[in-house]
């Protein structure tokens, strides 16, 4: 009897461990593909909790004489659906089906089966403990499993396995509940029923193990379906998925499916980002790049021999490592991250600005678009206040600011937010980048700044002569008087998602 109670307690622990991982996996995958992590986690948690309640309610119709059998069947179903949830979401995205509907459907199904677990396990434990001890044991062990899962998921599972393999791994771990119970109680089942459960278990095991075995090939096929060009690098870092493609001379980098640059026209973006503000400084010696782990902004800065120090702060070390080691990217960035003037730090940009005592002549904000709450904070009033404090007296900040055509309100929100912190002047400008469309920037000067007409290094696109064109906005891109974005009210996030909703 003691052994039986231990097996049931093991089942409770595994149930708690797997259930929270499924929830994290679905929400994280949704954030990867759709952005807006707050929305994805809110929908997932809300639907999950609601359908856990549905599952708990349905448990009252499970009769005592079929309790163990039905519990094993439910665990087999949970292992199959939960374990294959991410592969199903990947498939849905590749086929162009409605991703959010599939995400909600999977969350609801998993919620129902998880909701069935605790009531049924509690009833199976009744003969071993009194009611109050039984409830205390079941809930405390279940919550312990959930706690361990929430710690292991971001620290180990996501960076080492990625969401695809983690999903399948936890389906197999979940399957261990059905395997253990069937092994221990096998003699108590009618022979025909025992054989049916055994074959169901083998079928689920083979399905999950097969998906795990072919996961690399499936991921490759999925990537080939989603990305038109030949994939030359694929990697899942702790923070994001990195995909590099190549077609003839065009090398492209994607982070979580979003295009970061195209080799055929990235110079238009990076020359506009870097040379326009530098041409307004009497001297530029100490530069901070926030983001820009691909080394392309650093490449443009290194064209100025007077620049002595370039500090590049990028959260994900995998991006900078790719820029240092990948032949295609090294060729594109002119080996910039190996230059002794460039120092790379892997930190959060907001935290770095808060902690550093350093002052800079130029701060270049080359971060991804504000499509999640964690990125939107890097376009907030508080963030630009920190940037201003880290500039020297004559310092300049420049930031990429998404598209003033596709996401007009988001662009002007970034402009208005930067203007709200008290810079002497804030100048918006934009450039046509064929692979992206019309793209915007915002330059903010701490003191009066004007064109200095320095000797310009070799450029393919930028020259002072074209600046009037870059700073002229047609009527359909005029200022919309968008609200200032803050940590408490991240208006830029909602403007951005609303603006890109149609085009995506």
Automatic annotation (TrEMBL):
Source organism (scientific name): Pseudoalteromonas rubra
Known EC number: 2.5.1.16
Keyword Cell membrane carried by entry: yes
Keywords: Cell membrane, Membrane, Polyamine biosynthesis, Spermidine biosynthesis, Transferase, Transmembrane, Transmembrane helix
Residues annotated to bind spermidine: 270, 294
CC annotations in GO: plasma membrane
Matches recorded under HAMAP family: Spermidine_synth
Main location, first listed in the record: membrane
Protein's job: Catalyzes the irreversible transfer of a propylamine group from the amino donor S-adenosylmethioninamine (decarboxy-AdoMet) to putrescine (1,4-diaminobutane) to yield spermidine.
Keyword Nucleotidyltransferase: no
Reaction catalysed by this enzyme: S-adenosyl 3-(methylsulfanyl)propylamine + putrescine = S-methyl-5'-thioadenosine + spermidine + H(+)
Subunit (UniProt): Homodimer or homotetramer.
GO biological process assignments: spermidine biosynthetic process
Subcellular location: Cell membrane
Catalytic residues, chain numbering: 366 (proton acceptor)
Amino-acid positions noted as binding S-methyl-5'-thioadenosine in the UniProt annotation, renumbered to this chain: 240, 314, 348-349
GO MF terms, alphabetically ordered: spermidine synthase activity; thermospermine synthase activity
CDD domains for the chain: AdoMet_MTases
Transmembrane stretches, start-end: 7-33, 39-59, 71-91, 97-120, 141-162, 168-187, 199-218
Pathway: Amine and polyamine biosynthesis; spermidine biosynthesis; spermidine from putrescine: step 1/1
The family this protein is said to belong to: Belongs to the spermidine/spermine synthase family.
Membrane topology annotation: Multi-pass membrane protein
Annotated signal sequence range: none
Residue ranges of domain PABS in the record: 210-446
Entry protein name: Polyamine aminopropyltransferase
Domain of life of the organism encoding this protein: Bacteria
């Amino acid at each position: 009897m003691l052994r039986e109670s231990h097996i049931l307690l093991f089942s409770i622990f595994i149930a708690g461990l797997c259930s929270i991982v499924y929830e994290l996996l679905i929400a994280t995958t949704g954030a990867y593909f759709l952005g807006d992590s707050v929305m994805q986690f809110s929908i997932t948690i809300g639907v999950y909790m609601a359908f856990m309640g549905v599952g708990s309610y349905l448990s009252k119709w499970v009769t005592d004489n079929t309790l163990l059998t039905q519990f094993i069947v439910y665990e087999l179903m949970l292992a199959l659906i939960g374990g294959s949830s991410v592969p199903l979401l990947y498939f849905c995205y590749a086929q162009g089906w409605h991703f959010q509907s599939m995400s909600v459907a999977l969350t609801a199904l998993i919620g129902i089966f998880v909701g069935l677990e605790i009531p049924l396990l509690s009833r199976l434990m009744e003969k071993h403990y009194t009611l109050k001890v039984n409830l205390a044991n079941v809930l405390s062990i279940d919550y312990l499993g959930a706690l361990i899962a929430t710690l292991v998921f971001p620290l180990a599972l996501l960076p080492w396995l990625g969401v695809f393999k983690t999903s399948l791994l936890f389906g197999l771990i979940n399957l261990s509940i059905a395997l253990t119970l069937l092994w221990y109680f096998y003699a108590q089942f009618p022979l025909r029923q025992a054989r049916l459960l055994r074959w169901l278990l083998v079928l689920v095991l083979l399905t999950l193990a097969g998906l795990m075995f072919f996961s690399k090939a499936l991921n490759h096929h999925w990537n080939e379906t989603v990305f038109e060009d030949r994939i030359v690098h694929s990697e899942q870092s702790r923070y994001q998925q990195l995909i590099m493609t190549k077609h003839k001379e065009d090398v492209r980098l994607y982070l979580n499916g979003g295009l970061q640059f195209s080799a055929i026209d990235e110079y238009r973006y990076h020359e506009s980002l870097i040379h326009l503000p530098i041409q307004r400084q009497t001297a530029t010696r100490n530069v901070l790049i926030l983001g820009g782990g691909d080394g392309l902004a650093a490449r443009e800065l290194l064209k100025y021999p007077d620049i002595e120090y370039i500090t590049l702060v990028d959260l994900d070390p995998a991006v900078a490592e790719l820029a240092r080691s990948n032949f295609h990217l090294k060729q594109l960035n002119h080996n910039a991250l190996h230059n002794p003037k460039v120092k790379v730090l892997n930190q959060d940009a907001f935290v770095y600005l808060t902690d550093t005592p350093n002052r800079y002549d130029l701060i270049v904000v080359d971060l991804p678009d504000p499509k999640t709450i964690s990125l939107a904070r890097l376009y907030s009033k508080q963030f630009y206040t920190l940037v201003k404090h880290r500039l020297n007296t004559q310092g300049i900040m420049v930031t990429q600011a998404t598209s003033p055509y596709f996401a007009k309100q988001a662009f002007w929100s970034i402009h208005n937010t930067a203007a709200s912190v008290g810079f002497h002047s804030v100048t918006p400008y934009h450039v046509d980048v064929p692979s992206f469309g019309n793209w915007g920037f915002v330059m903010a000067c701490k003191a009066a700044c004007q064109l200095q007409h320095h000797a310009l290094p070799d450029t393919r696109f930028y020259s002072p002569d074209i600046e009037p064109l870059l700073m002229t906005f047609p009527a359909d891109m005029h200022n919309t008087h968008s609200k200032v974005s803050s940590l408490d009210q991240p208006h830029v996030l909602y403007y951005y998602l609303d603006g890109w909703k149609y085009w995506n």
